[in-house]
Amino acid sequence: MTIQKIGVCGAGMMGSEIALVFALADHKVRLMDMDKAFVDKAMKKLEATLDAGIGRGFYTEADKPRALANIETATDVSAYGDVDLVIEAITEDQEAKGALYKQLDAVLKPDCIIASNTSSISITVLSSYFSEARQKNFIGLHFFSPVSRMKLVEVITAMDSDPEVVKAATAACEAIGKSPIQVKDVVGFAVNRILFAMWDEAIRLVEEGACTPEDIDTGCRLGLGHPVGPFELMDNVTVDLTYKVSQILEDAYGDRMHTRPTIKQLHAAGRLGRRYGRGWYRYDEKGKRVG
Questions:
Q1: How far, rounded to the nearest angstrom, does the alpha carbon of residue 97 sit from its chain's CA centroid?
Q2: What is the pLDDT of residue 291?
Q3: 222, burial (CB in 10 Å: exposed 0-12, middle 13-18, buried 19+)
Q4: I need a surface site. Which of 79, 104, 113, 248 has the fewest CB within 10 A?
């Protein structure tokens, strides 16, 4: 299977950067979101990401115009009729994904590989929203944020995934400089099950009054070698996503992956993280931590 043209559904932080890494590897990419203003905003953000990368020596001056020229934008899935691989990267909501899949089912070519960037939902369950003939072409490709920097991709095989599809998608990830690992289709996959178990214990320590979030973040950075601490990371990925994934894990594994009360409180209070001005910490209008 040859993968040349890429479609990415969802122009948020994850989707736009997935589009970027494929564009930097000289793939033609179509980035789609229903709101044109949102897509335009994503393209400006990618320009800023490239500029910052050039300044830090990650990219050359020639990379920026080449990558941007490789990305087309769209506001409708009808633009995906000729793509070889489409990656869905919309909100972590099964019904929203399913509604999009039914639209894709009607326009994709028969041999198109379809992947979800879901961080927790069963790939086999998601594949059921497609017609039976397409289910063999459906897999999970879970990229990590920020996609432009993080090398890991979890490749998740559903019950009916064709081994040749898995092989082709894995090779496509390797070709753009990623390091894929193979994971069975279990809810939460591998990394998030480990991560949320750690987050659960970190939040317990705060709820017990044993440590502050800041002290735990410092301990994880300096004692465990993590680039950011758990509470910083929750604020960066948003408390909203943390809550949604935690609920999915709790539904699958019960009290073993119980959603902590403080996460529920932060979510209900609208304290959703860095981009919202407040999560575990406070941030200014530029996203800089102020307390």
A1: 13
A2: 82
A3: exposed
A4: 79
Amino acid identity, residue 277?
G
Contact between 89 and 9 under an 8 Å Cβ cutoff? The reply is yes
The three state secondary structure string of the chain is CCCCEEEEECCCHHHHHHHHHHHHCCCEEEEECCCHHHHHHHHHHHHHHHHHHHHCCCCCCCHHHHHHHCEEEECCHHHHCCCCEEEECCCCCHHHHHHHHHHHHCCCCCCCEEEECCCCCCHHHHHCCCCHHHHCCEEEEEECCCCCCCCEEEEEECCCCCHHHHHHHHHHHHHCCCEEEEEECCCCCCHHHHHHHHHHHHHHHHHCCCCCHHHHHHHHHHHHCCCCCHHHHHHHHCHHHHHHHHHHHHHHHHHHHCCCHHHHHHHHCCCCEHHHCECCCEECCCCCECC
CA angle (156, 46, 69) in 5-degree steps: 95
pTM of the model: 0.92
Q: At what angle do helices 191-207 and 213-224 cross, to 10 degrees?
A: 130
> Is residue 242 within 8 Å of residue 265, measured between CB atoms?
no
Q: Average pLDDT per run of 10 along the chain, which is 291 residues long?
A: 94 96 97 95 96 94 96 96 98 96 97 97 97 98 94 97 98 98 96 96 98 98 97 96 95 92 98 96 94 82
pLDDT for position 255? 86
Catalytically active residues, by annotation? 119, 142, 154, 192
